[in-house]
């Protein structure tokens, strides 16, 4: 079975390639970003893609977006998203692609048995669907409350953003540094799964999401 791996961490990428080789997979390419993933699939025509979700340059949902595009371009391609995170943007679209066949979404930290993991990959390559129960749980929660994954502090920051405050003003209100506020905003934007465009536009979208949640 021919496999392309996409993972920005060199150590994890090489370790995964070695692991799959032990279980009889042929790793035809191992790349470090989404653009290289698309190129590798075009050049090698694999049976299966195993991709991280957050990769360069933005480390948000590049791998997931590439996977959705690849499924559209290559309907028979089996894809497994393997990540530390449940990235809500595009996750539903990926899992619904190809009528939900030959698709998987697994969390790295919850893979406890390598033989079982290899079996899951084969199941997806054979047309099955394998989704970690935690992924399902978080996607269901997301459907009920778009702010459900924000921390209490992130909710505070978002509420103040919705009131029109600048980063400096929020920092003064919450007795934090501006750098700290910037980190909270970056985190909440990622958790809300907002597309990476202009930072100002993302802030507006975040505020709109907050206002809708209050209705």
UniProtKB/TrEMBL annotation:
GO biological process, one term: phosphorelay signal transduction system
GO molecular function: DNA binding
Pfam families (alphabetical): GerE (PF00196), Response_reg (PF00072)
Coiled coil spans: none
Keyword set, alphabetical order: DNA-binding, Phosphoprotein, Transcription, Transcription regulation
Annotated InterPro entries: CheY-like_superfamily (IPR011006), NreC/VraR/RcsB-like_REC (IPR058245), Sig_transdc_resp-reg_C-effctor (IPR016032), Sig_transdc_resp-reg_receiver (IPR001789), Tscrpt_reg_LuxR_C (IPR000792), WalR-like (IPR039420)
PROSITE patterns linked: HTH_LUXR_2, RESPONSE_REGULATORY
Residue numbers bearing the 4-aspartylphosphate modification: 52
Domain of life: Bacteria
Location of the HTH luxR-type domain: 143-213
PANTHER family in the cross-refs: TRANSCRIPTIONAL REGULATORY PROTEIN NARL-RELATED, TWO-COMPONENT RESPONSE REGULATOR
Protein name: DNA-binding response regulator
Organism: Dactylosporangium sucinum
């Amino acid at each position: 079975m021919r496999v392309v791996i996409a993972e920005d961490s060199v150590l994890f990428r090489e370790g995964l390639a070695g692991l799959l080789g032990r279980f009889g997979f042929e790793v035809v390419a191992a790349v470090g970003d989404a653009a290289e993933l698309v190129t590798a699939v075009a050049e090698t025509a694999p049976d299966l893609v195993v991709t991280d979700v957050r990769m360069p340059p933005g480390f948000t949902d590049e791998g997931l977006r590439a996977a959705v595009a690849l499924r559209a371009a290559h309907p028979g391609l089996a894809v497994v998203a393997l990540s530390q995170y449940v990235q809500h943007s595009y996750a539903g679209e990926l899992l619904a692609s190809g009528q939900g066949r030959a698709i998987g979404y697994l969390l790295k930290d919850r893979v406890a048995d390598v033989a079982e993991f290899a079996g899951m990959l084969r199941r997806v390559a054979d047309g099955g669907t394998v989704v970690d129960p935690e992924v399902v749980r978080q996607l269901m929660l997301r459907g009920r409350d778009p702010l459900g994954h924000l921390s209490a502090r992130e909710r505070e920051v978002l509420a103040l953003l919705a009131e029109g405050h600048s980063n400096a003003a929020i920092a003064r209100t919450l007795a934090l540094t501006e750098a700290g506020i910037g980190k909270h905003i970056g985190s909440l934007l990622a958790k809300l799964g907002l597309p990476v465009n202009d930072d100002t536009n993302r802030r507006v979208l975040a505020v709109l999401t907050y206002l809708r949640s209050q209705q």
